[in-house]
Amino acid sequence: MEINGKFLTLGIGSLPYVDAVKSSDRIFKAFDIPFWPQLPKRSFKENMYSQFSQGLPGLVIDEKKRTIHVDSSKDLSEELARIYEAYISGDYDSFGITEEFAEGLYAFIKTAERYKPEYAKGHITGPVSFGLGVTDEKGKSIIYNDGLKEAFIKLLEMKAMWQIGKLKDIAKKIIIFIDEPYLTSFGSSFVNIKREEVILMFDSIIDGIHSKGAIAGIHCCGNTDWSVITGTKVDIINFDAYLYADNLSLYSEDIKGFLKKGGYLAWGIVPTSEDTLKETGSSLFKKLSLQIENLEKKSIDRDLIISNSLLAPSCGMGTLSENLTEDIIKKLTDIAKLAKSIA
């Protein structure tokens, strides 16, 4: 599925607001590709791990302590069986996300009636980050628990499939991002996961997204081995272009192949930090232009880059102040206007 337009704007997911309706309205007005807002300041249940944890066997959420873990000391066989049964039968509703955990999603769907968007973007926390970020009662990451690993990957896939079903009621073209902050740790001594294993985890979820006619993206807001991501079936690679574009350009052959296959780069060019205060739309556009030229110097066709480029903030904005978030959104809009004028 193609994305019609160059340098369309989108967001990662999290915002600092607590009013779901106002957040959704702001998104529809500000972004070319609207996305449902994650609102972690509204509730711990909208934390990037809690939000996608419903149905996880042995789940324990402590809102007061703001912690989430799995109690693997219990017999989890029945809960595991329910996941596999639902997956095989296509019963994604049993493992959807309730309004208590995603008020922004439900408000977004209602608000969409006024805007009739062509696109709608959803998201899940990716299997690497979810598996490393959620631990058992002993503090061990559940990605190393063979009994849970396959189950939580299928659980995340079902949550993506469930979202697609909901979002298709409001838009023709659906994009689902797999958010992977922990990919920055891939290859370090702290993360014992093989490259092939990571690709298989991603492709399992991406295949599900594609089977529903949706577009799949991977978001990573730091340095990583980009050849791992280009080695998957993903359609959009979203990266922090403000700080790490030079790192991405080291993988120019992989990026060239990815773009030639129809892949898109979502440039996270507006920093989601106070660094944005020292920038203007013009200065950030100049930075983007230099980065595109850098890829062009590495024998990647300029027209191919421009035709397959999207724009975004560098990461989620859920921990920021509302004023800083508004500044980031404004600068993203300014850059997009400048970029579209040369496209």
Describe what you observe in this structure:
- The protein has 343 residues and is α/β, with parallel strands linked by helices.
- It has one domain: TIM Barrel (Alpha-Beta Barrel).
- 43% of the residues lie in helices and 14% in strands.
- The chain contains twelve helices and ten strands.
- The chain has a seven-stranded parallel sheet with strand order 1-10-9-8-7-6-4. Strands 2-3-5 form a three-stranded mixed sheet.
- Helix 7 links the parallel strand 7 and strand 8.
- Helix 1 crosses helix 3, helix 5 runs parallel beside helix 6 and helix 10 packs across helix 12.
- The longest helix is centred in the middle third of the chain and has 22 residues.
- The two termini are 20 Å apart.
